[in-house]
C-alpha cells in the first residue's frame, strides 16, 4: 500500500524500480530485528568491559575486584551472545550499528543500571533461569521504549518506523518462549517460503498494472461519495482488496476484508474503515451474484 502510494506521489513509471525498493524495504525489517537484538548483546559486552577495567584499577575496591556478575552472567543474554544464528546473520547483513555508535549503548547501559528492575535483580548474586528470562525481557522492553534510540532508528532508516512494533513484538515473543539455557535462539526467516515472497511482487504488480480496471469495480458503488474526494489511501486499499478478491483464489474473502480494514484504521482517516467495509461488503455480494469470486479450498468465502 505504501509503495503504491509512493508511486502516485512521485508519478513514477518504473514498476521494476519501485518493486525493487519494496522488496528491499521488507528485507530491511530483518536488519532492524538484528539491530534491536544486538543492542542487548552489546550492552552486556560493555558491562563486561567496564567490570574488567574496574577490577584492574590500581585503587580498585574489594567490590570492584569481586563484582556482582549476575547481569553479565545472565543465562539468556549469554545465550544470545553465543548464538551462531545471530552471529551469522549479523555478519551476513553487515549489521554494525552499535560498533559505530556505541554512545547509544553506553546511554542505554546507564539507563538500565539506574532502573528499579535492575536494582531488584542485582540485589542478590544468584538467580534461576526464569528470573534471568524475566530480566532479559524487561531489559529489552526498556531498550525498545527508549526515545533517543527510537529517534536514531527513525533517522537511520525511514522505512523502519512502521516496522518497529512488529520487530519488538517478535523479539519479546521469542525471549519469552525460551525454555532453558540449552535452547537455541534462531533468527526467524523473513518469508515463510518462496510462495510467500512471490505474493509480495504479485500483489504489487497486479494492483499497479490493473488500477484503472480495479477502480471501475467500486466507482458505481459510492453513490453518496464524489470519487475525486475519496482519500487516496482509501482508493489504493480498495484496489488492493478487489485485486485479492478477483486474482488471488487462495485468499479467503474474510481475511482480505479484515486485513485491509486494519490497514485503513492505521493509516487512513477515522471514518475510512467504515466506508471501506461498506464498499467491500457490497462488492462481495455483487461478485457472488455474478460468480466472479473463484475461490479455491474450504471456507474461502
TrEMBL record:
GO BP term, example: transcription antitermination
Molecular-function GO terms, alphabetical: RNA binding
Keywords: RNA-binding, Transcription, Transcription antitermination, Transcription regulation
InterPro entries reported in the protein's UniProt record: NusB-like_sf (IPR035926), NusB_fam (IPR011605), NusB_RsmB_TIM44 (IPR006027)
Gene3D superfamilies with a match to the protein in the record: NusB-like
Any single GO CC term annotated in Swiss-Prot or TrEMBL for this entry: cytosol
SUPFAM superfamilies reported in the protein's UniProt record: NusB-like
Keyword Metal-binding in record: no
NusB/RsmB/TIM44 domain location: 192-285
Family assignment from sequence similarity: Belongs to the NusB family.
PANTHER family: ANTITERMINATION NUSB DOMAIN-CONTAINING PROTEIN, N UTILIZATION SUBSTANCE PROTEIN B-RELATED
Protein name: NusB antitermination factor
Natural source organism: Flavobacterium caeni
Lineage start: Bacteria, Pseudomonadati, Bacteroidota, Flavobacteriia, Flavobacteriales
Amino acid at each position: 500500500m505504501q509503495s503504491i502510494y509512493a508511486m502516485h506521489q512521485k508519478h513514477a513509471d518504473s514498476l521494476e524500480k519501485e518493486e525493487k525498493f519494496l522488496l528491499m524495504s521488507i528485507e530491511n525489517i530483518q536488519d532492524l530485528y538484528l539491530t534491536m537484538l544486538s543492542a542487548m548483546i552489546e550492552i552486556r559486552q560493555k558491562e563486561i568491559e567496564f567490570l574488567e577495567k574496574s577490577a584492574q584499577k590500581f585503587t580498585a575496591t574489594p567490590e570492584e575486584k569481586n563484582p556482582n556478575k549476575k547481569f553479565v552472567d545472565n543465562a539468556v543474554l549469554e545465550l544470545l551472545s553465543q548464538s551462531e544464528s545471530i552471529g551469522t546473520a549479523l555478519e551476513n547483513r553487515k549489521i554494525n550499528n552499535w560498533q559505530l555508535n556505541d554512545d547509544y549503548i553506553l546511554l542505554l547501559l546507564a539507563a538500565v543500571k539506574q532502573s528499579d528492575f535492575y536494582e531488584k535483580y542485582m540485589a542478590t548474586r544468584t538467580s534461576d533461569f526464569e528470573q534471568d528470562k524475566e530480566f532479559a525481557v524487561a531489559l529489552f522492553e526498556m531498550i525498545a521504549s527508549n526515545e533517543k534510540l527510537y529517534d536514531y532508528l527513525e533517522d537511520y532508516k525511514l522505512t523502519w518506523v512502521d516496522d518497529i512494533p512488529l520487530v519488538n513484538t517478535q523479539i519479546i515473543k521469542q525471549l519469552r518462549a525460551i525454555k532453558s539455557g540449552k535452547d537455541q535462539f534462531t533468527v526467524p526467516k523473513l518469508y515463510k517460503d518462496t510462495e510467500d515472497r512471490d505474493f509480495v511482487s504479485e500483489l504489487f504488480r497486479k494492483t499497479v498494472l490493473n488500477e484503472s480496471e480495479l477502480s471501475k469495480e467500486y466507482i458505481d458503488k459510492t453513490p453518496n461519495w464524489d470519487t475525486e474526494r475519496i482519500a487516496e489511501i482509501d482508493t489504493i486499499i480498495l484496489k488492493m482488496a478487489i485485486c485479492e478478491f478477483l486474482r488471488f483464489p487462495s485468499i479467503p474473502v474474510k481475511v482480505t476484508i479484515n486485513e485491509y480494514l486494519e490497514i485503513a484504521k492505521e493509516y487512513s482517516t477515522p471514518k475510512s474503515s467504515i466506508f471501506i467495509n461498506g464498499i467491500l461488503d457490497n462488492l462481495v455480494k455483487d461478485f457472488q451474484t455474478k460468480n466472479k469470486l473463484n475461490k479455491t479450498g474450504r471456507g474461502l468465502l
